[in-house]
Amino acid sequence: MKTPVFIILLSLLLAPSVEADIQPVVINEIHYNPDVKTELVEFVELYNAGTADVNISGWYFSNGISFQFPDGTILPAGGYIVVTENPYTAYQPITIMDKYGVDSRLVYGPFTGRLSNEGERIVLRDVDGMKIDEVDYQLGFPWPTVGDAVPENWPGTGHSIQLVNPSFDNDLAGSWRSAYPTPAAKNQDIYADNIPPHIRQVQHSPKQPKSNEIVTITAKVTDADGVAEATLLYQLVDPGNYIRITDSTYRSSWTGIAMHDDGFDGDEIVGDDIYTVQLPTSLQVHRRLVRYRIEVIDSIGNNLIVPYSDDPQPNFAYFVYDSVPAWRGAIKPGDHGLLGEVVEYGTEVMCNLPVYHLIASAQDIQNCQFNSSYEQVRFRGTMVYDDVIYDHIEYSIRGEFSTYVSGKNKWKLFFTRGHDFQARDNYRNKYDTGWRVMNLSACASPWVPVNRGMSGMDEALAFVLYNLAGVPSPKTNFLQLRVVDNAIEADPSNQYESDLWGLYLTLEHPDGRFLDEYGLPDGNTYKMEYGGGDKKNQGSAQPVDTSDLNTFKSGYKRTNTVTWWKENLNLQNYYSFRAINRVLNNMDLREGWNVYYYHDPQTNLWTVIPWDLDMLYLPVTHWSGVLDIQNCLRHSELNIGYQNRGRELQDLLVTPEEIGKLMDELDAFINPPNANQAMVDVDRAMWDWNPRTASNHRGMFYKNPVTHNDFGGQRIVRTLVTADHEGMMQWIKDFMQPPPGGGSSYSGNGAFFYNGADFLDKEVFDSAIPNTPVITYKGSTDFPINNLTFQTSSFNDPQGSHTFAAMKWRIAEIGIGKYEIDALWESDEITEFNNTIQIPASVVQSGRTYRVRCRMKDNTGRWSHWSEPIQFIADEPDG
Q1: DSSP 8-state assignment for residue 694
Q2: pLDDT over 70, % of the chain
Q3: What is the pLDDT of residue 36?
Q4: Among the three residues 633, 652, 671, which one is the final residue of a domain in this structure?
């Protein structure tokens, strides 16, 4: 039954006034990403837009940041209050009073939590918990883009986001603009009584158009004064005719076409504020980049073009692409026999890896990669990955002394503010943190041509091993790189002239985003080079110069005291780092080079981060392979600690089984099992005899046997079990395990000829350790999860059974992608000998495979090896 109209009208007349309950306090300005990290001047500004003072005692921020206003806090009519972070945790305690001249009586804080640089929901509530105001800001369109210095070479000029007018809806992104911060003052530079239409929800469909498809572009456009016009401006960037943002053509070559909200030509609903335009099929050409902007004008003449002018990517874009084509090539074109045979690699091979497209000028690509006069130059281009357009990025050649050594050279790419690269791992899972810098390894060791054919597995495996050992290390993923710089996608008469560049490997950049990815506090991070440190991340509470690094270096150059080492070096990190170095023979490592140091602001400990791992798996010394922090090992206590950790890694990680499983898992991405063709074959055909390949690298893929000469007259002859990718992978496996392995071998003359397994064993072997215990299962049949009971043999030690100090138990899950080094559960150190343990039922799940081990320690601090494991499949609980 319908309610009579007169009753509805009567209820409205008798309803209490909603207007009287509206609070005039608004969030008016947010400074969430100052460009000088050591100046902690982030703040949230409140403004009272009403005509009466407001008592905000007990009001608090419940989201984004935490802060409660004290009793007696009055926000006067037309007045401002600023809530800021604590500047006294900064290395240079600059306050917003110092920087902006704010009256200290208007400043409250410190707040706890953080204002995220990528976006945050900030909620202000009154003393009763009722929501007063809320802003859910983001970085980049439809919100302003802030964070870097303006201009770039003038630190301290980073902008805040500011509400154009306190009467506007501050939860609409279009109500905000970026400008130099104005805490506790009117947003004068961007203030307006009326603004152009709000534009948001800009999108194109399909997201990855193909040739001859209609592309529909829509945007929501609203304005209280009415929308007079909405125009799409588009720019066509054809392959071989790249338009840089710095070119005059970029500013002039835009074509306008009207957008409409009339229900025709792709517009779905009349008058729903969704303005639409369809770009015809004739514009969609394979490999064409299409940029676009939107210009709007309201009924009183206010106009706006988006993206905003503060966005370093001041256009939207899409890339027309049909698919990755098949590719034809020979290993050595023109040669007789198998090397000269032209092979076609079908689309199933060419599409097996993620494809990264770099769109750029052919001359810029040539200068970047093959002209040493441009080594320090950054060029402009566009990266396309995962259907996302990263426009106006910069790229350069990467490396210190290895930039133009191999011919297939390395890249470094720099992404723009507000447009971090969203990388994915080899399983296509997104990383938690976006990248501003991306390093590309060429999978072609510059100084070790005999390792051509390792296809990036040398670096990828090494970084995974460090990470599994607990050493924070760059994450990597394999990709196919294609460079669109020519009108023709592939020259049928020249296999080397095409978009295809081959197999590459991303290397996560050890900067602030790296620390975020690993959940590490914001600290100084240095890349060691030229005997000093190149700072890659500035910690907010750490020195702005290199004094902290210099002090650390001065200390570790000496033996120093055990206490000093424990207070300054992350010893467990270093022990693991050194042990993995030995297994890999990281022979390019030496003091002051090819490593990062991270200074934790909370613990004051320095942590080693591996870097530059393209000289591995050869039994020669090259450089020393050590850092001067090894001075800690002159102390018996610390050397015992290193040996303990090294033996643990021998038992749990660098075993033939675990190394083999890990390598097979990684190699499957670039060389799928049972596949006749793979990207490793494509890469060989592209680069083994490429004219751009350095002469000493040509024909080096899988050369067998092969001779390598190194420093000090060291010479080895390496023989693979088979002269192919599989044989090269077996060499890596054999290098890290005791003989006989899979049959790879070497011979030669020189001062150093250990493989990795021998090298580690030489350093961590200790005849004084306790005997390895033997464990047995004592629980119910079939290993029920509630009765996993194990027993160990007695403690035995070369110094006598009276030296028992402690014992530990551990359990780990075994399976695809599961590695024994990652314990599910470890007991505390048990200091009174007890030969029986029951694993907590909450640790395991039925149907899964586990390993249990035990080890023991004597009163000198020496741990035994872990026992041989008992492996089992857990069953349902008894009873």
Answers
A1: -
A2: 97
A3: 93
A4: 652
Query: Could you count the other beta carbons within 10 Å of the beta carbon of residue 12?
Result: 8
* 566 burial level (CB within 10 Å; 0-12, 13-18, 19+): middle
Residues 399 and 493 reside in one and the same domain: yes
**Residue 128: CATH number of its domain:** 2.60.40.1260
Residue 745 lies in a domain: no
Q: Is residue 666 part of a domain?
A: no
Strand boundaries in 299-341, DSSP class E: 303-306, 316-319, 327-329
Which pLDDT score, from 0 to 100, does residue 801 have? 87
Mean pLDDT confidence for 191-197: 96
Indicate which CATH number applies to the domain containing 239: 2.60.40.10
Please write down the HEC assignment for all residues of 44-59. EEEEECCCCCEECCCC
> By the 8 A CB rule, do 693 and 408 touch?
yes
Q: How far is CA 204 from CA 387, 588, 796, in A?
A: 11, 49, 72
Residue 297: partners with Cβ closer than 8 Å, 6 or more residues away: 196, 197, 227, 228, 229, 303
Residues 348 and 285 in one domain: no
Q: At what angle do helices 636-652 and 756-764 cross, to 10 degrees?
A: 140
Task: Give yes or no for a contact between 489 and 239, defined as CB atoms under 8 angstroms apart.
Answer: yes
3-state secondary structure of 321: coil
- What tens digit of pLDDT does each residue of 673-703 get? 999 999 999 999 999 999 999 999 999 999 9
609 within 8 A of 471, measured Cβ to Cβ: yes
Mark whether 523 and 632 lie in a shared domain. Answer: yes
pLDDT tens-digit series, residues 362-375: 999 999 999 999 99
Q: Give the C-alpha separation, 506 to 555, whole Å.
A: 35
Asked whether the CA dihedral 246, 248, 249, 251 is positive or negative, the reply is positive
Exposure string (b/e) for 45-62, b if CB count within 10 Å is 16 or more?
bbbbebeeebebeebbbb
Q: Are residues 485 and 623 in the same domain?
A: no
State the residue range of the domain holding 406.
355-442+475-508
Within a domain: 706: no
Cβ pair 314, 293 in contact under 8 A = yes
- pLDDT, tens digit, 9 for 90 and up, residues 552-583: 999 999 999 999 999 999 999 999 999 999 99
Compute the Cα dihedral for 749, 750, 755, 761 and give only its sign.
Answer: positive
Distance CA 509, CA 474 (A): 7
Mean pLDDT of the chain: 94
pLDDT tens-digit map of 791-842: 999 999 999 989 999 999 999 999 988 999 999 999 999 999 999 999 999 9
Please give the full DSSP string across 774-787, using - where no structure is assigned: -EEE-S-TT-BTT-
pLDDT at 113 exceeding the cut of 70:
yes
pLDDT band, residue 19 (cuts 50/70/90): very low
pLDDT band for position 748 (cuts 50, 70, 90): confident
The strand order across the sheet containing 714-719 reads: 706-710, 714-719, 745-749
Total domain count for the chain? 6
pLDDT band of residue 751 (cuts 50, 70, 90) is: low
Q: What angle do CA 72, 78, 81 make, to 5 degrees?
A: 50
Domain for residue 766, yes or no?
Answer: no
Domain co-membership, 102 together with 159 = yes
Spatial separation of the C-alpha atoms in residues 304 and 294, rounded to whole Å: 8
Same domain for 48 and 171, yes or no, is yes
Helix, coil or strand: residue 686: helix
